[in-house]
Protein 1
Amino acid sequence: MDFDDTPEQKALREAVAALGRRYGHEYFVAKAKSGGHQTELWAEAGKLGYLGANLPAEYGGAGGGITELAIVAEELAAAGCPLLLIVVSPAIAGTVIARHGTEQQRRHVLPGIADGSTKVAFAITEPEAGSNFHRLGTVARRDGDDWLLRGSKAFISGIDECDLVLVVARTEDAATGKLKPALFLVPTDAPGLSRTPLEMEVVAPEKQWLLYLDDVRVPATALVGGSTDAGLPALFAGLNPERITIAASAVGTGRYALERAAGYAKARAVWGRPIGTHQGVAHPLAHAQIQVELARLMVAKAAARYDAGRDLDAGTAANMAKYAAAEASALAVDTAIQAMGGNGMATEYGVATLLGVTRVTRIAPVSREMILNFVAQHVLGQDRSY
Amino acid sequence: MNIVVLVKQVPDSGAERELRSDDQTIDRSSANNVLNEMDEYAVEEALKLQEALGGEVTVLTMGPEQAGEAIRKALQMGPDKAVHVLDGALHGSCAVATSKVLAAALRTLNPDLVLAGAESTDGRVQVMPHMIAERLGIAALTGARKLTVDGGTLTVERQTEEGYEVVTAATPAIVSVWDTINEPRYPSLKGIMAAKKKPVQTLSLADLGISPDEVGFAGSTSTVVESTKRPPRQAGTKVTDSGDGGVQLVEFLATERFV
């Protein structure tokens, strides 16, 4: 068992951290509050090949694994400027297309995802069905060679800055009459596709959207994998990369918050001593540090298993990593604020701005309760609770 | 254009640095060893010239085994290959002896242009480009904040305390650069992955036709006899303002001859 980065991973970590530091948390907050996006950071990270870390070299990626993409996500978050769309575009959409797309889809989409020039959103969640694809109401209907998509989606991250959206719909199986999932690559400017913003109490440059598909017509080549049988495995392929990268980002945010708080506690002196010399301040920070580091280990384990091609083993680890990282980063931000007192809530100290982001991570992309269900059922062997 | 960039591994200038108590050389074992910061600017300048003019960029270093880390770091930015002069007898070499070795290595590479950082953050003597130029009989354009190449003519803006001087020379020549010359790129992920496959040629003193007694402690023109740690910082003067804070501040500045 090797707990160290390879020399290349270490170099990547240092390079991404240096890039992130040049932008920093003030950039993130300024973009979020002005309704802008982290366009410059995204473009630069894409040009340097960081966003395509996990994608195959023959399609413009760096040929690394999800371990490398997780390093990118973690280090940008640790610099205070997480890029949520790493989770969506290269992690989910990039993996789905690389593993289950047709050759034409790979050539069409992957080079742009890898260099950041194409962003792909992901639309699965629905107002009525949540992420439960058994109940999805968005239906794909054949019309000649084309498909017509109809339905609505909720909590679609950052689609306003994306060129394409990977839509999860259901098709009717001709043989059984049962509905089964199918994924479509849809241009975000397709006729019949409209959106309205979902106002959120979260400081983030990536906005949340409601999406309406009103008989959106796409050609047969938009169906991922070229077959309705490809839908289910394609959908599952995206889940581990999604959980691992969101967990990595959460770990990075936890590191960021604790670094800020530790610096503050060391410098801020009351009655002649830095407040960090008081255990009442130092111990909660140390506790949060341990939680973040534990979560970080689980992220590395999940990523290593995924990169070794062990999807099922990776699934358990990825769920646990996501759970642990979300809890740890929320704890880290909350603890950091408490240590910093009133300044912890002040915008200029750059910690309270992460309250919303870390709170959301305990809910999305999969809630802590669903992960507990998974572990209870699949690890502890309990009967299904729902 | 065939370009060679001189790089050096140094102890991180942001941390406490020490000399070994036994032979007064840099203690590398306890230090975080990094690529000399100014060398990144030299590498960047070489890569920019290569992008514009084609040719090859080679990284050259002299140092112990672990200096290979600095070579990798430089190669990650994009150079094609590297040469590492590695020989146990080199330990303790002064600047004059080092310049003999680097000049010999450069002769085997036959570059049109040699680029170097204007100084290393450990030695800080700034003499290496001049010494190498003298040994190779080529021009030294040092302390550049701007470099342009027009055929076989190099023009640099040489940074001085008052402003800058414009100096030209014909290739081959050696140019040393300050951090004002460019903004070094971050290594791309492809660059990082590719660096481990790039050729690194190791040369010994025998390969360069240099006798061990011409370098190291034996062949050096200067010897560090002893060293003393920098005295700990004295506590500063605190001015408590009881209405006369301004006067006290000015008095302090006057005593220290700042005003």
Protein 2
Amino acid sequence: MSKVIKGPVFVVQDNIDTDQIIPAQYLNLIPTIAEEYEKLGSYALCGLPDSLYSERYVPEGQMDSPFPIVVAGRNFGCGSSREHAPIAMGSADCQLVLAESFARIFFRNCVATGELYPCESEERLCEILKTGDVISVDLDTCQVHVESTGKTYAIKGLGDVRSVVDAGGLFNYARQHDMISS
Amino acid sequence: MMTLTEKILARAAGKAQVKAGDNVWVKADTLMTHDVCGPGTIGVFKREFGEHARVWDKERIVIIPDHYIFTADSRSNRNVDILRDFVREQGLKYFYDVIDDPEGKWVFNPAQGLLKKQYGSQYAGVCHTALAQRGHTRPGEVLFGTDSHTCMAGAFNQFATGIGNTDAGFVMGTGKLLIKVPETMHFRLEGSLQPGVMAKDVILHIIGEIGFDGATYRAMQFDGEGARSLSVDDRMTVANMAIEAGGKNGIFEFDEKTEAYVRHRTETNGTRSEYEPVERDASENFFSEHVIDLDKLEPTVACHPDPGNRRLARELSDLGLDRAYIGSCTGGKTSDFIAFAEVIRGKSVVIDTFGVPATPEIVDELKSTMWDGTSVWQIMTDAGVQMTENAGCSACLGGPVDTFGRMNKPLKCISATNRNFPGRMGHKESQVFLASPATVAASALTGKVTDPRDL
């Protein structure tokens, strides 16, 4: 299945931890309740300090983000094991995080939930791109194309993780492959 | 030819041998969840296995409400009720409820204030500390928990790691999880801690050495004579923060201190007492080797905005503070408060200072430990520390806005907790400086970052 994700990017730097992705005060929301899942999306990345990030990922008063791709530096998603983090981003319509590296539990939670693709970039794209730049990411050829400059950059392949996210997460994948009963 | 972590995972996978990088299905010995991730885990379990599904083992799931308990936030109160309903429906053996009435509803009463206890006789406090105190940590076993600091149980020679709700829902239904065997980083501790230096300084030093992501995907194995010299509490402090370097787990060797602690706790609580520790092989494959000389360590601080931003306390004496905080799984044990009280005894704090014991048992210990006729608790409050009996996670992770000690303004706080990314303790422009209980105490007395050896 060919997969190209295209759209404007939201750029963040190193060490974006789970408190910045979804501040702890909103963890009273239960992701498996539909209404609360939606509400989590409205808070995605709202913990980023205003002094460093003047533009909000999800505009005030809205439930979804205009940025389907988040570009980040090192160690994206570090900190807590809260699955609310990839879920909040997925609920806000994020499809892909393109980071230099990921923290372990966040990466695994992206895959287990199937909320978004956690891709590693070969280069430090958070210093090359700026918020609003439009890119397309081809998960098959592992290439990023930047619309304004025409430049391309390589990303690392997702390997076995790809098909789990494609399936919509761990349980769907396991059912499709008869690993658990339907 | 295996590391401690590899040996436990091989056993749990039913294999003679595993090596770093292998993906293996392992059997869980215990699954722990709490009020923040429990309701979502239960939601995943029911969605995926069916409304009438039964958990894999009623005696191996431990549910410990501890995060957002003492708050008037109605959704947080509801989440404790969801746990209680599930425990009753499934007949789970280990649930440390906030209230005593199994048919009741939890409602926090803010009119009674934040300091006086509002929990019943079963409440256990912060999950990681409570797991150990209530006899649920056992050498050689596999513990999964829906909390990143689950790695604290590595102090007991077990494989313990944090997982998300979806993985936890899977474990809840099957008792198994597919995991990758991590590479092991070896930390050989030599010597012993000098006066004024604590276990927190050891782990802050190590994280500063390898960086905030220096152990990502890896196991951190702590051994050597220095590790053996540490108390069980100290080992918990160190293992707790493996995650702050990105580690999958931290693990200590088994010795007579581990044995005595686990025997006492399993006997007192009537929990499963048989276990089989893992011992070191003559040769192990390590990703990297590090030697830490405990004699040379000094009081250490992790500065805003990440746990790897290391400085020595004595280099920061010009840094003014607004607030001090002692508490959490890593920093709210009895030994932490004792170290704090030794520094502030007979003196007065000059900045707002908050104390949150990790568990009710610790509250009781601090009230019954007497120095010259005065309890440690009294020594703390006499010095001006605001001590709450409402043991729990409290402001370590911010929480609802009415949480005790939460930073609702952009303040600078020195804290004995474990994490200091932006917004961790509340306001997203606030700053947190991580330090040992002794350094937090010394700093509370001066209003600046202070090396406790200077007092």
